[in-house]
């Protein structure tokens, strides 16, 4: 995707990967609005990046930004002592952010299209617990025709994924493998 002139909204941009992605986007000519809960780190990242890429191109606060073309849901925490918060930030917020971005971007409802990136981790797929003798696998089937799939929402019915639903047998074959 051509990034020059694109507007990007990114969460968790004060440090780490988010800070790195913000700078990478700026270096390609995108304009970035980033948020974070770390006010001091956010302001200091904003000051450094504005000095390098221009005050109009990178902003750390809520502002009238016009259309958003790319949404990067990057904010995340890793602290299993606060499991509910981890699920809220790492999962629920990414889903909510994606839904908001989708509503804003979708062409069939007046948007101009876009790209949504959710930062996730391969450790969620196959956590390493070999020493405990426990194996984890995440199964990610396409849509399978079960009683669960009774939704009326046209957002789901309109997707290519929904049009190529799997039969139960195909899904269970995959499970056995
Ligand atoms: N570092 C890794 O090895 C790794 C690997 C796979 C996935 N990830 C994922 O990449 C993303 C970034 O990780 P990182 O290593 O740069 O971490 P980091 O801690 O350096 O940066 C994450 C940023 O998110 C911010 N944040 C946390 N909760 C927030 C909230 N509610 N609202 C706004 N900002 C919030 C933090 O303040 C921080 O600045 C996370 O989603 C993480 O789960 C990281």
Summary of the model, kept short:
One of its GO terms (molecular function) is 15-hydroxyprostaglandin dehydrogenase (NAD+) activity. With 177 residues, the protein is α/β, with parallel strands linked by helices. The protein is 38% helix and 11% strand.
Notes on the structure:
One of its GO terms (molecular function) is 15-hydroxyprostaglandin dehydrogenase (NAD+) activity. It is an enzyme of class 1 (oxidoreductase). This is 15-hydroxyprostaglandin dehydrogenase [NAD(+)]. Its EC number is 1.1.1.141, 1.1.1.232. Belongs to the short-chain dehydrogenases/reductases (SDR) family. The chain is an alpha/beta fold. Helix content is 38%, strand content 11%. The protein contains six helices and five strands; from the N terminus they run βαβαββαβααα. It has helices spanning 16-27, 39-53, 83-105, 154-157, 160-163, 168-176, and strands spanning 7-11, 31-35, 58-59, 70-73, 115-118. The chain has a five-stranded parallel β-sheet, with helices on both faces. The protein is globular, with a radius of gyration of 20 Å. The two termini are 36 Å apart. The mean pLDDT is 83. The site of nicotinamide-adenine-dinucleotide has 19 residues, from helix 1 and helix 3.
Helicity, as a percent range: 25-40%
Distance between the termini: 36 Å
**Radius of gyration, whole Å:** 20 Å
Please list the strands of the largest sheet in the order they lie side by side: 3-2-1-4-5
Major sheet characteristics: 5 strands, parallel
Helix-strand string: EHEHEEHEHHH
Question: Regions with pLDDT < 50 over 5+ consecutive residues?
Answer: none
Keywords: Oxidoreductase
Family: Belongs to the short-chain dehydrogenases/reductases (SDR) family.
Pfam family, one: adh_short
Protein name: 15-hydroxyprostaglandin dehydrogenase [NAD(+)]
